[in-house]
Amino acid sequence: MSSMVLNSGAMGILSEFSSDYNKKIYGREIARKLKMNQKTASNTLNRLEKAHILKFSTEGKNKYYFLNKFNPQIKEIIKLVEIDRKLRFLEKYKKIQELFDKLEKKTEGVLIVFGSYANFSANDKSDLDIFVLGKISDVGDLEEIYKIKINVVKSSKEKFDKNDNFVKEIIKNHIILKGVEDFVKLIW
Fold first, then answer.
1. Would you kindly state where each structural domain of the chain is located, as residue ranges?
2. Chain centroid offset of residue 126 CA
3. Tens digit of pLDDT for each residue in 73-91?
């Protein structure tokens, strides 16, 4: 697969599938959501389809795109998309990037940000919501240092149920700070 296939436009389109790996999305909806020119979106979708990353089905006159789960590299591509989302997240919240680094160090397992930070709508008064699959040490010291309320929700891989409503919300809107591979496996 050519690295040119996964340019920023392609990564933006593929990130639309990170909320649901089984999702089918109408091409025009992708262009509208990403504020892309329709022709640019169409060309990018066609390139992704030719590279066997996406497939499509036609319903009436509409083309609906979805991840090609028969592509042996698709999980690796999804991991790249999740890492790209993390990088965009860290760029947006660079003032508190050190906080995220310290949270990663305190965590054994998967560390996920959800809520307003994950959908890029946090403000100065927003709490930081994190979901941990595994263990995390006390974050009280970080709350003091960074003057931010941190809500920690803990679970384990054994108790993780992707049909649970709370977990569905996390899957729909998340940034994986640590444990991309484990999380992708769990929700695959």
1. 3-67, 79-187
2. 20
3. 999 999 999 999 999 999 9
